[in-house]
Every structure is written in structure tokens, then in C-alpha cells.
Amino acid sequence: MATTRLNRLLASAGYGSRRACDELIAEGRVTVDGFPVRDLGVTVDPEERDVRCDGVRVRPARRVVYAFHKPRGVICTDAPGNAPRAVDFLPKDGRRLFAVGRLDAESSGLLLFTNDGDLANRIAHPRYGVPKTYRVRVKGEVPEADVAQIEHGVWLAEGRTGPARVRVVHRERQKTILLVTIREGRNREVRRVLARLGHRVVRLTRVGIGGLPLGNLKPGRFRILAPEEEWTLVESTAPPARAMEPPWPERRKDDSTRRHGDAATRRGAKPGDAAPSRAQGSWARRPPFGRGSAGGSGGGKSRGPGHGRGDRRRRHGAGGRPRRRHRRRDR
After folding, report:
1. What pTM, to 2 d.p., does this model score?
2. Which residues are catalytic?
């Protein structure tokens, strides 16, 4: 097996994201062949080296991803309690599973579980911009002005939301059904955005994550993703290539020439002449002591050498004027 970084090996074994695994390494809880390792850049071969975390042998586990249809009333936390947990619906095979894209208790829909901590972090972190689509049923009619405002962003307590994609599936006087796609991971973002605009959400269901649809999966059921579906999720975590556009439209050359004229023409050259080079530019033809003639002080009249602005600065300092000399009077 090829060598891999230590934090990547720990993340693939289910010890958390790479940042969490870096903390385990920095705390000295990871050993290689019996020696504690604190260097974050160490690479190892798990088949030839004895890698342990808290005394337990670290073995690279095969990645598995579960797609689960969370019903309403089920919580996503792992803490024990009276409410049913989503992890209790999955098989107990000894794998440490991470919930990807949590839903509140009143929401339902697609929820992912995986033992790959790095993949779970890349899907859930808003930096990677993985799209998540929700089917929202709203009480009353949502006008087009509110739809446009959701697409451009709504101000919440922690700031303005990012751009969203909204499609109106059904609209009538009593209810409106929307398909909302966002790329952020704020807590209850869709519900809070609609409540900010004065609309009450009756039902919210997540129907897709990163190109993976919910499909015909029944509530309370799960399935293991196929390798091609896993690859679809991995591809969705790659940052999109965005073309850099200037913040203002590019001005046409004929417009700038018509408005301001050509610089060479203003200096006296004909329109058909070639543009002067840097060595022949206007700055090279300036006199050494200002805009006048050689030796001038900046005006059109020359007073000869030694009276230019530069000579005055060399004689009298940066101010260009002679300093007053105060003689001490003896009393």
C-alpha cells in the first residue's frame, strides 16, 4: 500500500475530520511503531507500520456511505435521550459514522452517514459549496418579489445569506410549494429566511445533496450508496472553477478615443503615426527641472542653470527656501 499522511489515515479510519485528527496528533495520542508522533506532516504505510491511537490499532477502513430518509420527530444528535435518533435506524457494524448535513426535528428528507470523516467535512462545510435542495411548503402565497429577494440574499442576525436558487412548483392562495437550493450550512437557514419575509413553513423536506437525489426512499429506510454515487458526492465537493470577471464592463477603444481623444494626437502627432515608446515618451522629453525649458524653475522663462527647483532643494533643503539664521546677540 502507498504511503499516506497520518491525519488522512486517521480520518479514513473514522477518527474525525483532518483538522480533528491533527489535534489528536498534536496532543501525542498517536504512535507509530510505539513512538509518539507530533509532526503533522508525517507519512506512513499502514501495512508496514504499527499506527495506534490511544493504544488501539488504526486500520484503514473501506469507505461506506448510507443514504437515510429521516422522518419528522427524529433527531440527528448522537447524545442519548428520549427522542429517537437517526443513527439508531442504521446497522450496528462497529463503524463510527458521521451525520452529513443535519436536519432539525421538524424537518425530514435525505440524510447521509459515512465513516469517512474527511468526506463528511467536505460535504457539510460551506466553503466547498455543495448544493442542498429542499422542497418547502409555505402557508399562503409567496409573491415574486419575495422569491427574488431569497435568490439575492436576506439579512439575518449573523449576516446576509448567500445566493439561492428558487423554483415555484405550485402557487395558490392557501399554499405555495418551492424548491430551494442553497450552498451554505447555517442553522435552519431556509426556515429563518422565509420567516424573515413573513412566511410560515408548514413542511420542509430535503430532496437532494450534491447531485444525489432522495428518490423513492421511504421514511425510516436507508440504503448503501453505489461506488458511482460516492464518486458523484466526491466530485460535488470540488470547488467550482469560476471565471474572473472585471467589476466594470470593458470600454471599447473607439468610445475612449471619441470621448478623450488619442494621447499621441494631443501631443501633436498625427493619427496615423505609431505610438511613442517608453524611451520616447513625454516624460523623457521633459526638462530636468520642471515643465519649462532646460534649467527653468517650472515656468516658461529660463533663468539659467543653478536656479531650478532641484538646485534650490539641494541648497536649502526640502522646503526650497533659504532658512533664516538667527544670530545670538551678546548683551
Report:
1. 0.61
2. 104
